[in-house]
Amino acid sequence: MKRAVTISMLSLAVSMLSLALPALALAADANAPAQLLQLEREVSLKMAHARDQGFTEASKLKALADAQAVDAEAEKALKDGEYERAENDFLQTKALLHNLGI
Asked: For residues 74 and 21, which has the higher predicted lDDT (pLDDT)?
């Protein structure tokens, strides 16, 4: 019985945390310019589309990996409030995805 209660409480705690984390991320971006947030959304959708393409050529896989790395840096810069760096990185990611035909 104690084990079931412990598992239930742990599950509840994980659920609450999963609901709280996106709110914290949104709070970090609250001061970001609307244009930058729109660019972030656009790049995020393009990244998802690129991953769904299932590239098999080594050159395209490398380009996708490069785009993912730059996108991760852009997300970090956005989170850290470094908006100019985030914008530059998102634009670079967008260019890399364009070269992939996305």
From this structure: 74
> What is the C-alpha separation between 18 and 44, in angstroms, rounded?
20
The one-letter amino acid code at 93 reads T
Residue 100, classed as helix, strand or coil, is coil
Instruction: Return the C-alpha torsion angle 92, 98, 52, 15, nearest 10.
Output: 30
Q: In whole angstroms, what is the distance from residue 95 CA to residue 36 CA?
A: 16
C-alpha dist (Å) from residue 11 to 23, 49, 71, 78? 19, 32, 32, 31
CB-CB contact of 93 with 67 (8 Å): yes
Tally Cβ neighbours within 10 Å of residue 37: 16
Question: What pLDDT digit, counting tens, does each position of 37-71 carry?
Answer: 999 999 999 999 999 999 999 999 999 999 999 99
